[in-house]
Design goal:
This protein has 355 residues and is of the alpha/beta class. The chain has twelve helices and twelve strands.
Length: 355
């Protein structure tokens, strides 16, 4: 049995993506602290201070069977198998801080884990840098600082053979002109540093956009179509966010990727936890005993169930978008409730329903 699973893993690692439409996954660096291995709490360390323990942490991630227990779906037994089957691209999400800039963060170890998933396939690995203006602006305040920063990024790309770089500059709701100007200057400098074969992308919210000039520089735009007011990421709001962005900046659909949340948010505006409280999808299914795939509300939480995730993915493909991406795959449930399966159903038009 072990040999069968190993053969299936090798086979999947060698096949090309189903089409030009891309399904990407963001992998936060803190999820891979002991790579291969992970924090046993699902959440964001800075925000989810009471995150619940996770019963499927990435451990050694070995292909070992423990009879008589057999997974309902073979690819779900190992996170490497599961991610490798589900996604075409991976974004290692790194904070813009001194640990990263001074080389103290184990980037190589993190990327080695992702490369194990990618194997010899056509999948891609990107580096995604997140920070606020307080993180980015000091690094590029002078021409010399800007050159040092872009040189450093360029070396990382060459050393690790990365497919691309993404910047997730978390602007305030009303960024100043100087913030937008500096961001544009940074993106232009990065485009000049990176070869034409290396993708440059930007993560944006419909409500928090950089200067329009940025969109002419980048190769991809990742739309974070979640964390809106109320029921934070409905099917309709995802379409509205996408269409508004396409129209507002005259963006080609083929440059846009639609973001899909694998978590839920409190949607009651009277709740003190309205903007703060989140719960990952896996725990929502567990805590509220959800059995229907089309349900998107549980207690105070609004989330995306399998039906909604599939519908969003199918719409993105029909609309001619470059693809979709998820935050984050480790929030997923297993079996028929899996959102990774729902994404693949949307991409493959039910080719995977029998798995």
């Amino acid at each position: 049995m072990k040999r069968i699973i190993l053969v299936l893993y090798v086979f999947l690692s060698c096949i090309a993506p189903l089409s030009a439409f891309e399904a990407g996954a963001y992998i936060p660096h803190y999820r891979l602290k002991s790579a291969a291995g992970a924090s046993n709490f699902l959440g964001r360390p800075l925000y989810d201070t009471a995150a619940q323990a996770w019963d499927q942490a990435i451990r050694a991630d070995q292909l070992t069977m423990r009879p008589p227990a057999m997974p309902g779906f073979w690819y779900e037994y190992s996170w490497s198998l599961r991610l490798g089957w589900g996604f075409d691209a991976f974004y290692l999400h790194i904070p813009m801080n001194d640990d990263f800039l001074l080389g103290k963060m184990p980037i190589t170890r993190y990327l080695d884990y992702l490369k194990r998933i990618v194997g010899k396939s056509e999948k891609s690995i990107y580096l995604s840098l997140i920070g606020t203006s307080r993180d980015f602006l000091p690094r590029i305040s002078t021409a010399s600082d800007l050159e040092d920063f872009t040189d450093y990024i360029g070396e990382l790309v060459k050393t690790h053979e990365l497919r691309g770089i993404e910047l997730d500059w978390e602007f305030p709701a009303l960024p100043s002109r100087s913030e937008k100007r500096e961001f544009t200057r940074l993106m232009a400098a990065l485009r000049g540093e990176l070869s034409s074969s290396v993708s440059l992308s930007v993560a944006v919210s419909r409500w928090r956009l950089p200067d329009p000039a940025v969109f002419a520089i980048v190769d991809e735009v990742h739309l974070m179509a979640y964390d809106n007011s109320g029921r934070h990421s409905t099917y309709q709001s995802a379409l509205e966010d996408s269409e508004a962005l396409l129209a507002q900046i005259d963006l080609l659909p083929s440059k846009l990727l639609l973001g899909l949340p694998f978590y839920g948010r409190v949607f009651d505006s009277d709740s003190p936890d309205y903007w703060r409280d989140t719960k990952n999808y896996r725990n929502i299914r567990r805590d509220f005993h959800i059995s229907e795939d089309y349900v998107d509300v549980a207690g105070p939480y609004h989330f995306n169930g399998p039906t909604t995730i599939t519908r969003k993915t199918q719409w993105a493909q029909r609309r001619g978008l470059k693809g979709v991406f998820v935050w984050e795959p480790y929030y997923d449930a297993t079996g028929s409730a899996s959102l990774i399966r729902a994404v693949r159903r949307g991409v493959a038009d039910s080719d995977y329903e029998g798995l």
